[in-house]
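Dear colleagues,

As part of the handover before I leave the project, I'm documenting each prediction I ran so the next person doesn't have to rerun anything. This entry is a single chain, and its sequence is reproduced below.
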Amino acid sequence: MRRVFPVSSSLFSSRRRLLFLFFPFFLAPMVFVTTAQGHEGRRIRLRVMTFNLHHGADIGNLPNLRAMAALLRELDPEIIALQEVDRRWGLRSLWRDQTAWLARVLEMEGVFAATIDRRPSRPGRGEYGLAVLSRLPIRAADFLLLPGELEHRGALLVWVQKEGEAFPVACTHLGLSTADRRRQVAALRRWLPEDPRLLLLGDFNVEATAPEIQEITEHLTDLQAACGHSHEGTYFHFGRPVRIDYLFAGPAWQPLICRPFPRRVSDHFPVVAELMLSDNCQPIN
């Protein structure tokens, strides 16, 4: 039986929201893992994805979550960062808890964090935000509501464990204005852990030449660019393919491949990367 575990909002500051964790078989211990055992001579390989779900709708704005689930199963990532996720929002997504549904169908663990919550003002309506799905154990989760004047945006941080190594993975969706994005990138840099194994995935709503992206790549590697596929778009803007969805990685990760898959099940393409973790990497405590 699936169970839903809300994390008490008292654990977080007033700028943070409620998280819901979905574990197919058990509740993982909710403790932050800040150290890892060394694995000399062994290198960990990982397959990750970022995907803007468009509340489970296709480019015609019709419900399409089953086709998305089939694509996610086909691409077979171990970790998926999702943006524009509905949780019992309304008719457009058939009142479905999309994180819980995908976690069940794909047999993954999941965490959802709301950036917009309509329940207090509109009873019977739901939430909208970010999610992370994982075939690997999720050991802890945290959420930050980002600053901005337009639509509420956030960042969801999880600690995932593979072969004894626990590392941070962040999912975010930045705003539509330059001013909001600059403030949001600054907030992310202050909040995210200074860990060389950090992965930062999401929809950044701007192309790679923008100062916001340049600020991120001063510290993290743009995986799609590092793999020679920076010319491949992830979203169509007035008929022109543009790259606004990114996977960034700390220096502990060696990129093997990273590129979008142009399948029109959403208004964005999923972007998938394969990585190798250095065998002599240690976290920054």
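The domain at 3-277 is CATH 3.60.10.10 (Deoxyribonuclease I; Chain A). The first strand starts at residue 3 and ends at 7.

All the best with the project,
I.
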